[in-house]
Design goal:
Structural class: alpha/beta
CATH class: Alpha Beta
Pfam family, one: CinA
Number of domains: 1
Distance between the termini: 17 Å
CATH topology: Maf protein
Strand order of the largest sheet: 2-1-3-4-5
Number of helices: 6
Organism: Mesorhizobium ciceri
Strand content: 15-25%
Protein name: CinA family protein
Length: 160
């Protein structure tokens, strides 16, 4: 499936369940919300997208704690969970998709290499799902497109 197909399937799944959707994006810079809103009729389901590239934006817009960022960094399970939670509580959405990662070409380390992305998925009334992927370092565009694909797939999985 293409990212467009996945976005369309996710919108239909949300519409079928009667829930709104929001995103909280760092490394993708709005590509997930763009994939969703590229589709006509998406306004029936899409509430908003939080583009929180800086740590300050994560704290201000989503309520990610400074303590979490200090202890674990922006690219971490804990931050992805707080991003997903913040998007859920600060929107009308019943499903939120959060991503934070290192798209490269720089910024990686031995502990957190280029291609590492953490995902947080919050579905109202359910435990938050957090997982990570280490995408091949085939360039920034590749990592960001694969992050969008994975986030859309995780949203579909959350909805069953």
């Amino acid at each position: 499936m293409t990212n467009s197909d996945l976005a369309n399937a996710l919108l239909q799944a949300c519409q079928k369940r009667g829930i709104m959707l929001a995103t909280a994006e760092s490394c993708t810079g709005g590509m997930i919300i763009a994939a969703l809103t590229d589709i006509a009729g998406s306004s029936a389901v899409v509430d908003r997208g939080f583009i929180t590239y800086s740590n300050e934006a994560k704290m201000d817009m989503l309520g990610v704690s400074a303590a979490t960022l200090d202890a674990h960094g922006a690219v971490s399970r804990e931050t992805a969970i707080e991003m997903a939670t913040g998007a859920l509580t600060r929107s009308r959405a019943g499903l939120t998709l959060a991503v934070t990662g290192i798209a490269g070409p720089g910024g990686g380390s031995a502990e957190k290499p280029v291609g590492l992305v953490w995902f947080g998925v919050a579905l109202d009334g359910r435990p938050i799902v957090a997982e990570h992927q280490l995408f091949a370092d085939k360039g920034r565009d590749f990592i960001r497109r694969e992050t969008v694909r994975q986030a859309l797939e995780l949203g579909l999985q959350a909805l069953g």
